[in-house]
Amino acid sequence: MDTTNTQTEAQEAHVEEPVKEIPMVRALFDDDDVLLKSVAAIREKGYKIQEVFSPFPVHGLDHALGLKGTRIAIAAFMYGLLGLSTAITMTYYMMIVDWPMNIGGKPSMSWGENMPAFVPIMFELTVFFAAHLMVWTFFIRNGLYPGRKAMNPDPRTTDDMFMMEVEVLGDREDLEGLLKETGAVELQ
Amino acid sequence: MHYESPIREPLILGEKNYHDVSIEVARPIETSPPRSWWIAFSISLLLFLWGIGNILYTIGTGIGTWGLNKTVGWAWDITNFVWWVGIGHAGTLISAILLLFRQKWRMSINRSAEAMTIFSVIQAALFPGIHMGRIWLAYFVFPIPNSFGSLWVNFNSPLLWDVFAISTYFSVSLVFWYVGLIPDFAMLRDRAIKPIQKHVYGILSFGWGGKAKHWQRFEEVSLVLAGLATPLVLSVHTIVSMDFATSVIPGWHTTIFPPYFVAGAIFSGFAMVQTLLIIMRKMFKMEHYITIQHIEMMNIVIMLTGSIVGVAYITELFIAWYSGVEYEQYAFLNRATGPYWWAYWSMMTCNVFSPQFMWFKKLRTSIMFTFIISIVVNIGMWFERFVIIVTSLHRDYLPSSWTMFSPTFVDIGIYLGTIGFFFVLFLLYARTFPVIAQAELKTILKSSGESQKEHHTEDGHH
Q1: B60: buried, middle or exposed (CB in 10 Å: 19+, 13-18, 0-12)?
Q2: Hey, what domains does chain B have and what are their CATH numbers?
């Protein structure tokens, strides 16, 4: 399926401008375990790994690359609190302040007394805000949007190949040798 | 590193590498569908069109076209609503709750189960919409400022809680599904040769490239969404049950409704997943991914939840007797021995008796038997809602207004129409979407693939 023709085409369409200016080597791997070992070896030698593209989440890769943990769960918690306060404000304003109603002989005296009836709304809005705003954050932080050009330089990295982009420090051939030695199957 | 005990059955059969997984997941999209797909699609489309006709007739003429009367004011419409919402629950259970429990067998089935959730919630949402009569005023269910002064929605009403619960459930399920789809759309985009396919999957994949940081966030987002969806799915059917439980109708006014409804929802949802997946794995040759083991696991869930539902039915009967309330006692006596006895005993047979066959390994690993039981269970769960709704209403406090309910062709037409609509959506999905979460599945290929597992054992690793 991956003919050379579609590959080069896709590569042209894929390349991202700022990355191109730094001299770097793109190494392709065909196995996630080999990739992990290579990442460790490359970093040990003091090279800087720009990016790794993989078809699926490789466990332990974020640690091997020294990535910081993501704070998106904290953001989701904040969004949840926002949803909860929205629900409280809304029920308070609409049911207690603006138009208090006597429903089933249970007049709306204070928000506290009516609160049990509002629990479902409070819960649903907490979830609604947390989930949707977190996903929006995920899209914005990753720069994902409909119509965005594919970020991976090689289309095989969504199938069965793993690509490491390493910045060239010193001799290019040393780096290429090291990558080959640690299991890269193709260099670009 | 990729070790899994040899006692565990492989989840992916055959000799496969990562590339094979891509090819096989993309195959239904890249090849023309089998004849069986066209037959199923044509029948579904006809039912759907018939349903649209009946819905338009209802909207144009009014709710009087249904079989409702002044005693039985709720019947098939709400039965169908609860039935469809319930079916949706299995999808969230598989994708969220089984993710939190780290059950790897969810990975081959979660995509389709979530698709089923979304498509069935669409069917469910239709019914309250058309039951309003004046559907063009449907926006009144939302708390929006309006021209009638400060008239707000009633936040004390379970019907309004339902509006919030169903909207949240639908939209959160949709984004959960979509976030998971993005890497798979990217795989299809990078494989596509035809320019239109490449373009469409390019837009759908949002430019995903599988960067390390993005995967890290992706996994965190999936986990948090699962954590949010788990209480959400439980809350949805809890709130649906409160539509009944907070009223003062004998047979509805019971505190066991929330857990009883949630168990029933999971029960019917898993049955629907079985119906769909047994057809899909055959139609698109997915037998290596959706294995007998997957079917067996789901049958065990059906057996468990079916038994919970059975316990709930018996508890209801006991509490009705124990309450000492004459009306409550009569409501249940009338269900079992009144004019709707056949509905009650169909429910009992389909929901309590039939899942007990799953205690036998031979039966729960038989595809034909599973398929039959999955349909029987959904018939039973439809009857459960019909029994709860219609038999509780048709003989109310005033014997002079006792009556029976019989559906008109419009009631039947709309119900069949939603079944058609559901299958139209599912069959289109099965041809255009990656039906298996391939990116996620590739992470377990080394530990749970059949040939990889054999390799481990032969080499004497561990």
Answers
A1: exposed
A2: 18-135+151-453 (1.20.1630.10)
A window 81-120, beta carbon within 8 A of B? 90-91, 94-95, 98-99, 101, 103-104, 106, 114, 117-118, 120
Q: What is the rounded distance in angstroms from the CA atom of residue A185 to the CA atom of residue A168?
A: 18
pLDDT of residue A4: 44
Closest A-chain CA to B204:
A146
The per-residue pLDDT for B103 is: 85
Contact B399/B372 with Cβ under 8 angstroms?
A: no
- Closest of B235, B352, B294 to residue B113, by C-alpha: B294
Tokens of A96: 């207690």
**Distance (Å) from the C-alpha of residue B171 to the closest C-alpha of chain A?**
8
Tell me the backbone φ, ψ of residue B211, rounded to 5 degrees: -70, 150
pLDDT tens, B55-88? Answer: 999 999 999 999 999 899 889 999 999 999 999 9
Percent of chain A with pLDDT over 70: 89
Residue of A nearest to B247 (CA): A104
Closest alpha carbon to A83 in A33, A123, A137 = A123
> Cβ atoms within 10 A of the Cβ of B272, count?
28
Structure tokens at B377: 């269970």
Phi, psi angles (nearest 5°) of residue B365? -105, 10
The two structure tokens encoding residue B60 = 């144009």
- Region B379-408: mean pLDDT is 92
Average of per-residue pLDDT across B412-423: 96
